[in-house]
Amino acid sequence: MKKWIVFFVLSIAAMAPCSEIAPVLVPHGNKVVAGLSAEFALAYLNQTTGTVVVHYPGEVTVEIESNGKTSQEKAIDLTQTAMQTLKPGEFGQVVYQIQIPADATGNLIIKLKGMETAPVVLAVAPATEEPALAGNAVTNAPTTEPVKATAVASNATNEPTTRSHEWLEDPMAESFAGRFSTYQPMYLIAGTRPTAKIQLSLKYKIFDDDGRWAEKFSPLNHLYIAYTQTSFWDVASPDPKFTDTSYKPELMFSYDDVLKNPSRFFDLSHMGMQGGYEHESNGTGGIMERSMNILYVRPIFTWDLDKTNDWFISVAPRVYAYLTTGEYDHNMSLYRGYGDVRVVVGQRYGPQLALVGRVGEDFNRGALELDFSQPLRGRSSGNLDLYFYAQFFTGFGEQLTYYDKSTTTIRVGMAFVR
Question: What interhelical angle do 2-13 and 171-179 show, nearest 10?
């Protein structure tokens, strides 16, 4: 059971800040017994697009809360791992050991001093209860190798298990944890009508890096299936309903960095590349049906403006060609043209401003979208892994069904991924 709980919280955290490297506490080991030692893991996920070196302290101060009493203990790194190098999408952790107070009962809340992490809650067995497995026994040597995953998060239970990393040995859990990742921004915002806008987006890596096919033909390492859904919900209407939803499945190649090292070419610090096939439709059928199929290519150029404070600018132009359009949207190119561009400027772990622009085929129609996002983790003492999100849109085609109508909207709310 524990392996699925851990996997579940890992998956939920994938919706949290995708560009940040933040520590998270995860339960580890067996049943926690009062008066004996227990273990927890300090985990990191590299959700950035570059390789990151994570340094782990050999000793951390832990605040333990039980029965209304609070105490502080020192936790020792059992793995003796000073640092780990995590590639994009890799998950690493170290295991710490603490002494559980002899009078601890019920739920034990563990917090790290000096680090912004959500607390972990452990269920404590009384000291007189004979545990199925000794609380201070290490049944498996903790791993120090990075493991590919999509997310990390805290867990509210600590159920017994016979293997500390059993969830990683389950093929299905490993497949989900290692191959799903976030794609486009995911948010829930509300404002001018149609009142609310909701966007969800994920991508799935098809082939395993270590598989025989991927080893023989390396581009298979970069082949993904992606899906994005954008819905408009007229909450303020007397008859609240979804006025428009667009469904966008994709098959694409995605390279995180084709440069490998910073380039002298225009002083680029990073260059990604995406390209593939995208379908988009509203699925209504009849005269309101809107659908198209395109082929596109999108380079992503990134420059570091201030490495000390993580200021950067990213420019991602996209060029596409229409394979087909629907019977009732055959003039789509007049409003969407044959390309768009996304520009992002800000701090990787701070505020960001994103601009998305496109212009129609005759350069007399187009659209502009401005998105501002601010992480709430630091402003909520580590309690909210969300972003404040504000969006301004003006121009044609905010809703796919009404692509030939011009609108101006302002919405604010929360984002899970930006």
Answer: 10
Of 238-242, 253-257, 260-264, least confident by mean pLDDT is 260-264
Among candidate residues 386, 388, 353, the one with its CA nearest the CA of residue 368: 353
Q: Is the dihedral of CA 160, 161, 164, 166 positive or negative?
A: negative
Cβ burial 227-244 (10 Å sphere, 16+ → b, else e): ebbbbbbbeeeeeeeebb
Q: Provide the 3-class DSSP secondary structure of residue 360.
A: coil
The verdict on pTM exceeding 0.70 is no
Question: pLDDT tens digits for 152-180?
Answer: 333 333 333 333 344 445 555 656 667 88
- Between these two residues, 49 and 4, which has the higher pLDDT value? 49
Contact (Cβ atoms closer than 8 angstroms) between residue 108 and residue 121: yes
Q: How far apart are CA 169 and CA 150, in angstroms?
A: 16
Nearest to 66 by CA among 105, 98, 121: 105
